[in-house]
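Exercise: predict the fold of this chain.
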Amino acid sequence: MANEIKGIHQGQPLLSAGIPIEKAEAAMIMVHGRGASAEDILSLAADLHQPQFAYIAPQAANQAWYPYSFLERIEKNEPWLSSALLTLEETLAYVTSHVPPERVVLLWFSQGACLTLEFAARHAQRYGGIAGLSGGLIGPEGTPRDYAGSMEGTPIFLGCSDVDFHIPKERVEQTARIFSDLGAQVTMRLYTNMGHTVNEDEIEAVNNIMSSLLSA
């Protein structure tokens, strides 16, 4: 099983932008959505205007981290999901070999948001910040959420449309409650009729997390 898991997403490119990780004061791990690429999500760095950051983006095999909806039974998205979570674990290990986790921001969109929120809940610790754009924790209604550990005050921003056709607002609200219970400082914003996209207010919220981290 381990070899099967490692064979899906492992060995895919790990792209970077911004300052080299060896010289960075802080870092952001950016996780793309379904049908997109690491290169696509890295282009968002130009809108963040944070030159002290290194930006690191893993690539999913075939441009998808798992094949079905994030609301399906977790077993239905295996072994892709476990391989994707392992990719994030490996990416975080690489980044934190240069920058401590409390100076690492996790950012993602859509399928990448769901994946990284699930990863962060399963690996609760103090991060520099987390920004989940149009996403929520993985699994159907009733999935056990007995995550261990503490986010230790990590600032988390969750932004989504109130009528997103992929992400029910109830799952975003549940995700906010769970991370609050894990000790995170959560800001959640549901935007009226926005659709499945990213808006300027969300970009500003991400920039605020990054600026606060650098000034801490």
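Check your answer against the key: The mean pLDDT is 94.
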